[in-house]
Amino acid sequence: MNETPLDAEHRALGAAMTEFGGWLMPLRYTSDLAEHRAVREAAGLFDLSHMGEIHLEGPAAAAALDHALVGSAAGIAVGRAKYSMICAPDGSVLDDLIVYRLADQHFLVVANAGNAPLVARELVARAEGFDVVVTDRSAQTALIAVQGPAAEGIVTALVAKADADAVRALRYYASVQVTLHDGAPALVARTGYTGEDGFELFVANDDAVALWRAALAAGEEHGLVPAGLAARDSLRLEAGMPLYGHELDTTTTPYEAGLGRVVRLEKPEFVGREALAARAAAAPERVLVGLRGEGRRSARAGYDVVTPDGTRVGTVTSAAPSPTLGHPVAMAYVTPEASAEGTALAVDVRGRQEPFTVTALPFYRRQQA
Predict the structure, then answer these.
(1) Rounded to whole angstroms, how far apart are CA atoms 243 and 245?
(2) Sign of the torsion formed by the C-alpha atoms of 56, 60, 65 and 67
(3) Which residues contact residue 260 at a Cβ distance below 8 angstroms, ignoring those fewer than 6 apart?
(4) pLDDT(70) > 80
């Protein structure tokens, strides 16, 4: 089992630890509800060091990524980032990713923890014949996130004064190289997985503990708390964001998940293009939808979705009580006939039909300042 560079910090804070993607990670520090609400109202501090970081450098880095991924890396401006996917030749999703363009010939691909070794191997294989060097730096890189309305004030306090304005000026899905107060270099990105404003800070493993402690200190006056995987999951569910292994997997293409927009079929060639073009032209067999619970009982992943007369029409992929909205929410794959907004459905919760209504995603959208 892998441990992040912050393992001792989590234990000192009394975190309950759990296995996730081959890593031992904090599930919660105090309560799921308190950590969730802190992110929505103030700020939460997350250890994301289990994520994978694969660098591509060289004159053909953009071309290699355009071949390897479904999106357009060549179209990413320096300092910006895009959400993308790496698919198998049959169009199924191997992982969803964020691609950062750090320089004209330098890209950073951030992969999900459990898939990072596979993504690294695939990128190496798919880059063969291109003038590019692929380097997996996951084991040397720590990743810490500050998410919530107070995130900007906390992160600007962590960087050198000369870099504070650059952090404030970051747009969503953009990044900048900075120096932290202690002199350590960091990449700061304005991305996140909670539906709130937030930042992710990439540093060397040796700098992780100092950054974590500095963030806790800087965030104390803002109401920041350390937050675990449980809060991260309920936050991303409210924000309608997919989780690999739930909404995305090797039985799913981007189109079923409602993410066909990330596929650039106008590219003349990339792995999976032929299969994805055929899928884009075909009628869907299932559709990912949001479900609003009309009662108090929450569903769970894997539960059947049924019509009021008991006919099975789909499967729940993610579900939880929504602390922000005060009712259960879920995402599910259902037949197209059952996917219209407002359709009354039910989830079979241990033999009892609990009422749910198809609703638009995301369930929660933050108020823009």
Answers:
(1) 6
(2) negative
(3) 254, 280
(4) yes
* The two structure tokens encoding residue 345: 């459905």
DSSP, collapsed to helix, strand or coil, labels residue 42 as coil
Q: What is the pLDDT of residues 79-130, one digit of tens each?
A: 999 999 999 999 999 999 999 999 999 999 999 999 999 999 999 999 999 9
- Find the distance separating the first CA and the last CA of the chain, reported in whole Å: 42
Tokens 């962590």 label which residue?
158
Residue 359 near residue 237 (C-beta atoms within 8 A)? no
Q: What residue spans of the chain are helical by DSSP H?
A: 7-12, 32-41, 61-68, 116-126, 151-158, 161-168, 208-219, 229-238, 273-281
DSSP 80: B
The β-bridge relationship of strands 133-136 and 141-147 is unpaired
Alpha-carbon gap, residue 204 to 192, rounded angstroms: 20
pLDDT value for 62: 98
Amino acid at 133: V
Q: How far apart are CA 161 and CA 195, in angstroms?
A: 28
Do 105 and 58 contact (CB within 8 A), yes or no? yes
pLDDT of residue 368: 66
For the question of whether the overall pTM of this predicted structure is more than 0.90, the answer is yes
pLDDT at 367: 78
Residue 198: Cβ within 10 Å count = 26
| Of the candidates 248, 82, 263, 252, the residue with the CA atom closest to the CA atom of residue 174 | 82
Q: Which two tokens stand for residue 133?
A: 């060097």
